[in-house]
Write a structure and sequence with these properties.
alpha+beta; Nucleoside Triphosphate Pyrophosphohydrolase; 3 helices; 17% helix; 39% strand
Length: 158
């Protein structure tokens, strides 16, 4: 927790907290849908050009499952939602950034085909379908690396 000095006393300052969701969307061939970040967000250490899987910040009062449904429309494309099934909660992760703390609920799902996503969200663009090991060789967000390395078998379909 960051500290600051006020009147000669060390004070602890609470960081703002963001809640979000992530979706590991796998094709029947075992590849994962990846996006390319187009906008830098230093608050959460995100740089333009980083590769990621779909992630979205939750709206106030929105459940994580509702956030996944919105994520599918905004970051994948409404026309592909019918191809996505077996949406399962995997785990929750906490990340401490310089300007905030993020709590991310991670879900896994399967797609019937490897389509080209058409994000409505202008912060990301389609990158491609990659083998999970290929994704980790890319310039990725901290969250992507941590999630993929922390639960290497959880992201595979049971």
């Amino acid at each position: 927790m960051p500290q600051f000095v006020h009147g000669g006393l060390k004070m602890k300052q609470e960081l703002p907290m963001l809640r979000g969701v992530a979706l590991l969307l796998f094709s029947n061939k075992g590849k994962i849908l990846t996006l390319r970040e187009l906008v830098a967000k230093p608050l959460i250490r995100k740089q333009a050009g980083m590769k990621t899987f779909p992630m979205e910040t939750l709206h106030l009062g929105e459940s994580s499952r509702d956030g996944v449904d919105r994520l599918m429309v905004e970051e994948i494309g409404l026309q592909f939602c019918g191809h996505i099934h077996k949406i399962v909660f995997l785990d929750e992760f906490t990340f401490t950034h310089p300007g905030c703390i993020t709590l991310i609920d991670v879900y896994r799902a399967v797609s019937e085909e490897e389509f080209i996503s058409t994000p409505f969200d202008t912060d990301v663009a389609h990158h491609g379908w990659l083998d999970p090991t290929e994704l980790l060789e890319e310039f990725v967000r901290l969250e992507v690396k941590t999630i993929m390395e922390t639960c290497p078998n959880k992201h595979k379909e049971a």
